[in-house]
TrEMBL record, chain A:
InterPro entries: Anaer_DMSO_reductase, Asp_de-COase-like_dom_sf, MoPterin_dinucl-bd_dom, Mopterin_OxRdtase, Mopterin_OxRdtase_4Fe-4S_dom, Mopterin_OxRdtase_prok_CS, Prok_Mopterin_Oxidored, TAT_signal. It comes from Desulfovibrio litoralis DSM 11393. Residues 54-117 form the 4Fe-4S Mo/W bis-MGD-type domain. This is Anaerobic dimethyl sulfoxide reductase subunit A. SUPFAM superfamilies: ADC-like, Formate dehydrogenase/DMSO reductase, domains 1-3. One of its GO terms (cellular component) is plasma membrane.
TrEMBL record, chain B:
Gene3D superfamilies: 3.30.70.20. InterPro entries: 4Fe4S_Fe-S-bd, 4Fe4S_Fe_S_CS, DMSO_DmsB, ET_IronSulfur_Cluster-Binding. This is Anaerobic dimethyl sulfoxide reductase subunit B (DMSO reductase iron-sulfur subunit). Coiled coil: none annotated. Its cofactor is [4Fe-4S] cluster. PROSITE patterns: 4FE4S_FER_1 (PS00198), 4FE4S_FER_2 (PS51379). Electron transfer subunit of the terminal reductase during anaerobic growth on various sulfoxide and N-oxide compounds. GO terms for molecular function: 4 iron, 4 sulfur cluster binding; metal ion binding. NCBIfam families: DMSO_dmsB. The lineage of its organism: Bacteria, Pseudomonadati, Thermodesulfobacteriota, Desulfovibrionia, Desulfovibrionales.
From TrEMBL, chain C:
One of its GO terms (cellular component) is plasma membrane. GO terms for biological process: anaerobic electron transport chain. The chain crosses the membrane at residues 6-27, 39-61, 81-99, 106-122, 137-156, 168-187, 207-228, 235-258. PANTHER family: ANAEROBIC DIMETHYL SULFOXIDE REDUCTASE CHAIN C, ANAEROBIC DIMETHYL SULFOXIDE REDUCTASE CHAIN YNFH. The keyword Secreted does not apply. Keywords: Membrane, Transmembrane, Transmembrane helix. This is DMSO reductase anchor subunit. It holds the Pfam family DmsC. The keyword Nucleotide-binding does not apply. One of its GO terms (molecular function) is dimethyl sulfoxide reductase activity. InterPro entries: DmsC.
């Protein structure tokens, strides 16, 4: 494919034929002086190596940032020599046709692909599990034989429930390279364990199911900011976590330009979202959004700024009038807020100020702003729910949208994170999973340690009272939650190190990650750029496009997951069922005919032709994006929610029931209240006992320099977006720290050595160690528990493996630590 | 001759993502410590602890993405003893590697850290406005990379007439070199002086 | 991390020694003592050559060095290189006695001009520490100090000269030079702190002040040795020279350390 010149220059100024240049050369130009230059010019004049033939391919970055961006690898001599991105069309935001420009991570793909730590050959652990020096290369066939034998043995001995496909989000779209290949294989073999929910928004999904009857992603699309008066972002950092040039960051910029709505961000950090779109930042202590939301509700109630009509017709349990039959007295939402409930504490701004750190006057003013703005776009990110009582944070914030009647209207929203509307992204058919008993994703390590001991009422097992087996086989394709991304790495290492528990760990990755080091068999995977596929938008894009990718030569012995699963299917006697007689190319053609062309009729008759263009798009008017809950809003009787009452449940009898029947723990905050409310938790701001030794609240925000642990080891990125601990100058000063100093960050679970970024962009009392950095245990020095000290700055060396009460989700932003100068 | 082209940088949109830096680095195979484009994180304001233990603050932050500005009064050119750094026929300030002696005088004289020494090649290097792309009618790599569409370029007179020359802290006052950089200033931005302390990420540039 | 620009330190200090010595040869009328004058010119030349070598080490593409003479129209660095070449040539011709002693003033003036040119290289608009009159004062100071110290030393080796006014003038010019050289930092710091916010340069400023104190103390010690050497003991004079040279090297390290630009 030859590069089309004008294709590349769609910036608005370039279109004005401003470039009428002759040859611009950096070599020539005779300049001033004494005319000596000719005499001294080295001969031959600056010979250039003959340029290689360049080819531009189409590919995409498919990691889990919620978008997928178009990458245009420029290939010469079989190798990627540079990466370009999508500049093929002029931006037309209103019609949903705009460039899907990659962020710096995607742009650094070449560096990542050819890095030293890329996996080259299949390996087997011959030493103790977790010993980096115990790996030796083995042939692909041997690796596949051993995996197949172990799979068979575990299925036969312990049942299909013992096979876990661990949460792994490294490949988010791409029909042939997503995790479906292994699902499909396992479903042909009788099923497998797949944790429920995820690490992203477990508490949000669980909480909002009780409030709105729908598990998350239910707010208005961000495009509705174009129609609002005021937008309030609770811990929503779209600029950094939705960074794609074809994604939400760009859409919010556009939408805000239209409405010029005021935008307030509530976050412990002055996030990148504050930089680009916020008119005001309100710093808040982690884990205390429910306290703020309750005080806002208090002001809204006392100043009569509620949508009373809406509360009567659409909501259960706001006050005594709308409580369900048989509910206990004084347990409505309003009772909790006004202090007529069980705790007898009015949730006044004064009360909340002490907890949140936000001045009383600011809380009152914020309530008035929210109450006075019609409509008001209230939205939340997932940082505030990745907390010990995250379910309550997420529900309390959403409740604000309910009491102000913003649900289901243009420019408003139900207070949840935005809904998304990618039309279609092809997947390999996965078949049906016959294993119907599930446990929450986050509890996979418990299931390894003692799966048989996991119950419905204590661990959230669904489909049975108990889980039938321990996990004996782990398949980890494109994931790092085995170690790096899961809570409490030292605890994880301890349990995984016991080979009498899990018998086989297979890791298939592109790089030598922390998880890879804990594999028994380690398989080198091709990267996104090294396989043919059909890719499309991921879960946080609202545009419709399809990419037909062409590959570069796979790195060393790496293989695509589909081909690996075919080989396993062969060995396990299900090859025919698995492939349905199709080659990879035939699967793609099948998808092209049966899925892609019906979705996008303008596609050419053959896949081959589609590949010549690479990226195809379909217009979708921004103003046509649906408003969730609109039908319910317009006619709640005809369109009830999926809650038991069909209404929004500010009081949930189901939660009340759970609180009585579930086995909850003694530690602070392990409670399930029936209304959205503030819960003071272990290692929260109010955990004064733990704070005696570990006084700082630690979060680990999702960082622009990487997507989780993906891209985290790329030196280009690390040089300009290093892994640092964010700390406020006040806390730094108290510890004698200056910008750039190395510190130890520690608590009872572990110790990390890291440089500090002393910045006013984080509030006092809070530090952040951006999550996803590569765990790097240095074996010589040990911490007080004889665990290795992490030199990589991985926050999960410090997080606690303790599940949240309702979702049994990951509270990885709830931690207390101390920071000491080294 | 003055530069025909200027960069445009919309600081109100810039999220400090550094795609522009990395795209340039990738396109020109730059070593780790050489960045033709650099993104400055500017942070200001203060924290106030209230008597009741709550906090108020007026903290603000913004980003500036800066390459070589192909200045009208290029101190680098004036300082270069060999003529390696010179203005070409489009008024772009470029480095002729075949003349550079590696004295680094240009980098001493540029208040934008634009000229950077390439240890592998043993000569000075710098953003040349993607001159060979311009010659083929292609926009610069960095301009096309920006996910926020915060970067652009265009005819100098037009852009400078509209936005003036970048005179925003922590950049140096524009009168020094007359940079051909037009900035749409961020709502938080502070006027350039020589002594602003806003630059928060020197080590990342 | 601090990286010391050794090559430039060597270059500027030794070139200034060279120019200073040329000046003092003339000012003290050393031509009356042709033997010592000869030695002095040889030192002048060698010092210049070593200094020039330092400058060359600073460059990475020697093959391109001839281009460095092409921009004398506007680049002070080109002029510096030209200046060094002219001055070096003159000194060489004097060493070879092709130029006669009567032309000593010419060579001395060329040296003065050279120092002026060298100092202009550091009159960089965007480096406040450098961009002051202190740079000229300091560079002339170093020239006088080192030229003076060398000549004081040479005159101590020759009893004839010891009786003349030469050592006296050398000592005093050396002392004045040291004073000027130590003053550089005051101008530099003043300008830097007025231009760049103190918090941006706090670390460097501290280090500069520490080095400046060391520079001054060593200069003082050098003076004491010089003036205390009542018996004209050559070894003490040599020692004094080495101390003074060491001080000037520290002063120059300090100078390059203060290469802090405004801007980003
Ligand atoms: N403390 C803390 N921990 C967290 C979070 C937090 O906020 N705080 N966030 C959590 C969240 S929300 C999530 S989603 C998880 C994410 O955790 P993971 O799903 O583990 O995501 P990544 O860390 O990005 O790991 C993706 C892996 O895929 C690999 N990979 C990339 N491309 C390919 C490919 O083409 N083929 C193969 N085989 N592998 C590939 C990468 O090398 C990388 O090892 O982390 C969770 N962990
Ligand atoms: N660049 C980048 N983008 C990503 C990812 C990535 O790793 N890197 N990961 C992707 C994935 S899988 C996911 S799940 C999403 C994650 O998206 P989120 O979960 O929304 O991201 P976080 O950074 O954990 O949290 C968002 C913001 O909440 C703030 N915060 C933390 N705790 C609290 C709190 O208690 N209250 C309030 N109000 N704010 C709080 C943080 O400072 C942060 O700015 O991002 C996706 N996008
Ligand atoms: S990490 Fe996300 S935003 Fe960045 S290039 Fe990849 S898909 Fe796009
Ligand atoms: S930015 Fe610096 S290098 Fe570029 S032209 Fe201006 S002075 Fe020269
Ligand atoms: S380093 Fe090269 S380009 Fe820079 S001033 Fe010296 S000779 Fe000129
Ligand atoms: S114009 Fe080209 S060389 Fe200059 S910074 Fe942008 S990409 Fe790099
Ligand atoms: S790519 Fe754009 S948004 Fe990102 S840092 Fe550069 S200018 Fe700013
Ligand atoms: Mo996630």
């Amino acid at each position: 494919m030859k590069k089309q010149k004008t294709d590349q220059s769609h910036s608005k100024l370039t279109r004005r034929q401003l470039l009428k240049l002759g040859t611009v050369s950096c070599v020539a130009a005779s300049f001033g002086g004494l005319g000596l230059e000719r005499a001294f010019r080295p001969l031959p004049a600056n010979a250039q190596p003959k340029p290689l033939e360049e080819k531009i391919l189409t590919s995409a970055c498919l990691n889990n940032c919620g978008s997928s961006c178009v990458l245009k690898p420029v290939v010469a001599d079989g190798k990627v020599i540079r990466i370009e991105t999508d500049n093929a069309i002029p931006d037309n935001w209103e019609e949903g046709l705009f460039q899907i420009r990659a962020c710096p991570r995607g742009r650094s793909m070449r560096r990542q692909m050819y890095a030293e730590n890329r996996l080259k050959k299949p390996m087997k652990q011959f030493g103790k599990r977790g010993d980096p020096s115990g790996f030796k290369p083995i042939p692909w066939d041997q690796a596949l034989d051993e995996i197949a034998a172990s799979l068979k043995k575990c299925i036969d001995t312990y049942g299909n429930e013992s096979i876990l496909s661990i949460y792994a989000s490294g490949v988010q779209t791409g029909m042939m390279q997503r995790r479906e290949a292994f699902y499909r294989l396992m479903n042909l073999l009788g099923g497998f364990a797949l944790g429920r929910s995820d690490y992203s928004s477990a508490q949000n999904q669980a909480g909002l199911t009780y409030l709105y009857g729908q598990a998350g992603y239910s707010g208005n699309p961000v495009t509705e900011i174009a129609n609002t008066k005021l937008a309030v972002f609770f811990g929503l950092n779209t600029t950094e976590t939705r960074m794609s040039g074809g994604g939400l960051q760009f859409e919010i910029l556009k939408a805000k330009q239209i409405s010029n709505a005021r935008l307030i961000v509530i976050d412990p950090r002055y996030s990148e979202t504050c930089v680009t779109v916020a008119d005001e930042w309100i710093p808040i202590r982690p884990g205390t959004d429910a306290a703020l939301a309750s005080a806002l509700a208090y002001v809204l109630i006392t100043e009569n700024m509620l949508d009373n009509e809406f509360l009567k017709t659409h909501v259960q349990g706001f006050d005594a009038d709308t409580m369900p039959e048989g509910a206990p007295e004084n347990s409505a939402y309003k009772d909790y807020i006004m202090g007529t409930g069980y705790d007898k504490i009015a949730k006044t701004p004064e009360w909340a100020a002490q907890i949140t750190g936000i001045p009383v006057a600011r809380i009152i003013q914020l309530a008035r702003e929210i109450g006075g703005a019609k409509p008001c776009f209230i939205s939340q990110g997932w940082g505030l729910q990745r907390q010990a009582a995250g379910e309550m944070s997420t529900m309390s914030v959403a409740a604000l949208a309910t009491v102000t009647g913003n649900v289901g209207i243009h420019g408003g929203g139900n207070g949840d994170r935005d809904a998304y509307y990618p039309g279609f992204s092809p997947r390999l058919p996965r078949g049906d999973n016959k294993v119907s008993i599930t446990f929450p994703t986050f509890l996979w390590l418990r299931a390894v340690e003692n799966g048989k001991g996991m119950t419905a009422t204590r661990d959230g097992v669904k489909g049975a009272d108990k889980y039938p087996t321990d996990i004996k086989f782990i398949w980890n394709y494109a994931g790092n939650t085995l170690v790096n991304q899961h809570s409490d790495i030292n605890e994880t290492r301890r349990i995984l190190g016991d080979k009498s528990k899990c018998e086989m760990i297979v890791v298939m990755d592109t790089h030598d990650t922390a998880s890879a080091q804990w594999a028994d068999i380690l398989l080198p995977s091709t990267s996104y750029l090294e396989q043919t596929d059909i890719v499309g938008p991921s879960y946080a894009m609202n545009i419709d496009w399809l990419g037909f990718t062409t590959p570069v030569t796979p790195y060393e012995q790496s293989r695509p997951v589909y081909e690996v699963c075919v080989e396993l299917a062969k060995r396990l006697g299900v090859e025919k069922e698995f492939t349905e007689g199709k080659t990879r190319e035939q699967w793609l053609e099948w998808s092209y005919e049966t899925q892609c062309r019906p979705f996008m009729p303008e596609l050419p008759p053959t896949l081959e032709e589609a590949r010549k263009v690479g990226v195809w798009r379909k217009a979708k008017l921004r103003s046509d994006l649906p408003i969730p809950f609109k039908a319910f809003r317009d006619d709640p009787q005809a369109n009830p929610l999926k809650t038991p009452s069909g209404k929004i449940e500010l009081f949930s009898p189901a939660l009340l029931e759970l609180s009585k029947t579930w086995e909850l723990n003694k530690f602070k905050g392990d409670v399930i209240p029936p209304t959205p409310q503030y819960v003071s938790t272990w290692e929260g701001y109010e955990d004064t006992e733990t704070k005696k030794l570990f006084p700082l609240q630690l979060i680990g925000h999702h960082y622009k320099g990487r997507t989780h642990s993906h891209y985290a080891s790329v030196d280009w990125l690390l040089a300009v977006m290093p892994q640092n601990l964010w700390i406020n100058p006040i806390d730094a000063k108290a510890r004698g720290l200056r910008h750039g100093d190395t510190v130890k960050v520690l608590n009872k679970r572990g110790e990390v050595h890291i440089k500090v970024k002393v910045t006013k962009r984080i509030m006092p009392g809070v530090v952040s160690m951006p999550q996803g950095a590569w765990y790097n245990p240095e074996s010589k020095n040990l911490d007080q528990n004889k665990n290795p000290i992490d030199q990589g700055g991985c926050v999960n060396t410090l997080t606690l493996y303790r599940a949240s009460p309702l979702a049994k989700g990951n509270p990885q932003h709830t931690n207390l630590v101390e920071v000491v100068k080294l | 001759m003055n530069s025909k082209y200027a960069f445009y940088m919309d600081s109100t949109k810039c999220m400090g993502c550094k795609a522009c830096m990395i795209a340039c680095k990738d396109a020109y195979n730059l070593p780790l410590n050489v960045n033709y484009r650099r993104v400055a994180e500017c942070v200001g304001g203060d924290w106030f602890i209230q008597p009741d233990g709550t906090y108020s603050q007026n903290v603000f932050a913004y980003y500036l993405s800066v390459s070589c500005n192909h200045c009208n009064d290029p101190k680098c050119v004036a300082a270069c003893p060999t003529g390696a750094t010179h203005k070409n026929e489009n008024g772009l300030v470029v480095i002729d590697a075949s003349r550079c002696v590696g004295c680094k005088n240009c980098s001493w004289n540029c208040p934008y850290s634009a000229p950077q020494f390439n240890e592998e090649k043993q000569h000075m290097t710098k953003c040349d406005f993607c001159a060979d792309r311009l010659a083929q009618n292609l926009a610069p790599v960095c301009v096309l990379s920006c996910p926020a569409r915060a970067l652009d370029f265009g005819p100098t007179e037009e852009l400078i007439a509209k936005y003036g020359r970048a005179n925003i802290a922590p950049l140096p006052p524009s009168h020094i070199t007359q940079p051909n950089l037009a900035v749409n200033p961020h709502q938080n931005s502070v006027k350039a002086t020589t002594n602003t302390t806003l630059l928060a990420n020197k080590e990342e540039m | 991390m601090i990286t010391v620009q050794w090559s430039l330190v060597v270059f500027t200090v030794l070139i200034q020694l060279s120019a200073g010595l040329a000046l003092l040869i003339w000012l003290t009328g050393l031509k009356k003592f042709p033997k010592t004058e000869k030695v002095a010119w040889i030192i002048t030349f060698l010092s210049g050559v070593i200094g020039f070598g330092g400058a060359v080490l600073h460059l990475t593409m020697l093959a391109h060095a001839p281009y460095a003479l092409t921009q004398v129209g506007h680049a002070w660095l080109s002029r510096e290189i030209l200046g060094v070449s002219i001055f070096g040539l003159l000194v060489l011709l004097r060493v070879l006695n092709i130029l006669k002693a009567g032309l000593n003033p010419l060579i001395a003036l060329a040296g003065l001009g050279l120092i002026l040119v060298v100092s202009q290289v550091y009159r960089v608009d965007v480096v406040p520490f450098w961009n002051t009159i202190g740079t000229e004062i300091g560079f002339f100071g170093t020239a006088l100090a080192l030229g003076g110290a060398v000549l004081a030393m040479l005159s101590n080796c020759n009893p004839e000269i010891a009786e003349s006014s030469t050592p006296f003038i050398s000592k005093w010019l050396c002392a004045i030079g040291l004073f000027m050289s130590c003053c550089l930092v005051l101008f530099g710091l003043h300008n830097m702190m007025n231009t760049i916010a103190p918090e941006l340069i706090a670390d460097t400023t501290t280090l500069i002040i520490q080095l400046a104190v060391a520079h001054t103390l060593i200069a003082g010690l050098g003076c004491a040795l010089l003036f205390g050497n009542k018996n004209h003991t050559p070894v003490i004079a040599l020692f004094a020279f080495l101390v003074i040279l060491g001080g000037e090297v520290i002063g120059r390290i300090l100078f390059y350390l203060a290469n802090i630009r405004i801007g980003i």
